[in-house]
Amino acid sequence: xxxxxxxxxxxxxxxxxxxxxxxxxxxxxxxxxxxxxxxxxxxxxxxxxxxxxxxxxxxxxxxxxxxxxxxxxxxxxxxxxxxxxxxxxxxxxxxxxxxxxxxxxxxxxxxxxxxxxxxxxxxxxxxxxxxxxxxxxxxxxxxxxxxxxxxxxxxxxxxxxxxxxxxxxxxxxxxxxxxxxxxxxxxxxxxxxxxxxxxxxxxxxxxxxxxxxxxxxxxxxxxxxxxxxxxxxxxxxxxxxxxxxxxxxxxxxxxxxxxxxxxxxxxxxxxxxxxxxxxxxxxxxxxx
Amino acid sequence: xxxxxxxxxxxxxxxxxxxxxxxxxxxxxxxxxxxxxxxxxxxxxxxxxxxxxxxxxxxxxxxxxxxxxxxxxxxxxxxxxxxxxxxxxxxxxxxxxxxxxxxxxxxxxxxxxxxxxxxxxxxxxxxxxxxxxxxxxxxxxxxxxxxxxxxxxxxxxxxxxxxxxxxxxxxxxxxxxxxxxxxxxxxxxxxxxxxxxxxxxxxxxxxxxxxxxxxxxxxxxxxxxxxxxxxxxxxxxxxxxxxxxxxxxxxxxxxxxxxxxxxxxxxxxxxxxxxxxxxxxxxxxxxxxxxxxxxxxxxxxxxxxxxxxxxxxxxxxxxxxxxxxxxxxxxxxxxxxxxxxxxxxxxxxxxxxxxxxxxxxxxxxxxxxxxxxxxxxxxxxxxxxxxxxxx
Amino acid sequence: xxxxxxxxxxxxxxxxxxxxxxxxxxxxxxxxxxxxxxxxxxxxxxxxxxxxxxxxxxxxxxxxxxxxxxxxxxxxxxxxxxxxxxxxxxxxxxxxxxxxxxxxxxxxxxxxxxxxxxxxxxxxxxxxxxxxxxxxxxxxxxxxxxxxxxxxxxxxxxxxxxxxxxxxxxxxxxxxxxxxxxxxxxxxxxxxxxxxxxxxxxxxxxxxxxxxxxxxxxxxxxxxxxxxxxxxxxxxxxxxxxxxxxxxxxxxxxxxxxxxxxxxxxxxxxxxxxxxxxxxxxxxxxxxxxxxxxxxxxxxxxxxxxxxxxxxxxxxxxxxxxx
Lengths: 288, 391, 323
What we know:
The complex is a heterotrimer. Chain A is about 75% helix and about 5% strand. By secondary structure, chain A is mainly α. Chain B folds into two domains: about 20-150 and about 285-350, Response regulator (Rossmann fold, 3-Layer(aba) Sandwich); about 155-280 and about 375-385, Response regulator (Rossmann fold). In chain B, the strands form four sheets. In chain B, strands 8-7-9-10-11-16-17 form a seven-stranded mixed sheet. Chains in contact: A-B, A-C, B-C.
């Protein structure tokens, strides 16, 4: 079983899984890094992104690039209202934010159940066909996701390192009071960070819904994944999210293919627990 | 002026009389238990809607005529959240607070087993579903429980035989299922049926909630299997398994002894679903199926019709027929009439039978006809009807 | 402030506690309907879990694995009866010892983490334990659980006797928690929660205290587990999932974490309310979610805080000097 074709397939599968996991975790780690909020409603925002894409791309047949960006923008814009109403009260209050955002998650999910019914829907794929790379198969829609992951990561890195607002965000993440005293408009920066985080989450949600299925309960799995990736990589670290996503993708691909699903689950959880006990700030995070 | 008042008075009196006459119809509460929140909601809604449709039909015909009384049935549906504690509380409430004597549901074994702890001592008839044998097979011989849906024990053997006849080249079958109550019950059962028919079997259970099966499919293909059986997977997961199997390069036959998930598989799999074989509760080309679908759409909109809906409709309709034949709503009389309904021509499924004595010790398993269907050119083609063995 | 010794505040809590006790004892007699007795039993059992979790929360740790420990005790209790023919009460106590020992074993490892890291590690721990229940089919029956439960012992085989026995066990368990929280140890716990480094400097063995409380809480919740599986006549992993642990945490947070009566109120609220509001399931969930948000934003100390706020508002209205 450990032959070269199988190993190559495992590698490609791992890359494609890693891409999805990175996208799902980015928004989560950003919110934590800047506002110290553990967003338990993360999955719900991903799910909303899925529904936005469903309507734009599946129902109204808007061209794909416009649909995917537009859907995420739509969700992020509408969510600014939630930032005013809910998130604002819980910045830097870790424990209250957890419970309150769990409440927000429930409210959002069941409102969607009332609006859209529980049955799973499917979205049309971004690209049809399966690529054959010398015996190793890669579905075209997974390739699209990998491409989008790279673009998003690159865009975000450019933003934080080369723009004024990006640098302001990093300053606020390090120490919000000093940043404010240096003239950074922290209120605006928080809203901007929130907007970007939800944008990325909704984008990931749309892709997730396309790859798998769309339902109001769709967000549970992305939330779990985001948690694990961010613990691995370090809460608040974007490069950590990238590393954690890749690690998790490869580990799952390797372990599930060669040893089965339950071994994969046990090992992943065990490793994460060990990491939390010995190095809770993750591989690329900073000790607090 | 005078004429108008007289007309009003007459109308008023007529209305009162009509109301009084209508009030002479007694209320008959039918209890329903199923998951209305959380992961199992689709099935809970299927139960609620199926039973409600049966009730609507009876009421549209003027009520349920039992003996010399006419009843207006109504559904009292409670959420069990798909857990045993929920099933227990819902049953307790229906039996003790609402004085219900007939319950349809619950759906999952833990919930059913918790509920019958209340309903059997209280002598309440229960028409439920659940893969566990203990629902029917117990020391008390399940005096008041009936299973309204066929399980793998019923449709497994005839389907495995069918596959043996139609796919002579298949030697090794892969059984992939979720690691939950359903998967853990069904996979061992199917394994015995396959082996009894000369197949080799490879099994793998995955964590429920997973939607990414590509590593699993790679693993499966490395085992050299000749066919994939989607067995007890929920429709969403079954569709993703098929799609991802094909995307990983699996070209051998894929079928499902379970489901039905044909609609979801065609929608999510698209052209990749070609050749897929499964069972379905209906031959959708038949007029009776089309009528049911039309009524459902008129009331509940355009969502996917969960395949359990017509079966729960049938359960309620069969219960009503048993009441008519018993001539009363006394529980023991209805229970006896229900047991004698073997051969009764149901509206949707043709003649129903009771079976299960060999497997459970008591003949309270409803046996209904089902269809083998195949996806051909993007449409469901019926390959013929099968009947579970009456044992 | 967590420990106001103002006479009015203390008297109010005593009155509330006494009222609850009277209601609890008279509850089954209020209605001929056994459904309400079953509901009452569920509320009482949930109070055991919520109050034991309060011990852990008072030390400053939020555990999402509490239901998993409950499951360990429940499985041990049932398996001892089935395979070794133990009687019910000894098996129940053995189950509690098992979950307490597990807590003692794991405590020193996980309690070194604080805040969100502790929440995450207990979340994963709970999941691993639940996966063990699910995978070890030969012992636990897997996802279907153990369906042929041993028969209910004769002294609790009617709804009424089961209720009073559960009440008795709950009072014992809550009593143990209360005694600890009111004692010197309780004050040490508060000190540890507020500022553990300083507490350590004043000589309190912080880690040892946290582990002791953790192990005790895990043992006590076993009482709920052992009794609850009899009530539902079956044991399966779904009763010990993260959702159940989360429910226990919410009972504490909603009711009020810093007074013992908080989790008791929270348990009553969370178990009884969905039953009394049958119907409109989705809307209930939405309203519940919004309630959590509002309570967390406005009343971080839970509903008990509401009582304190009302009292202060009342005092101001009456012109008395503030409390």
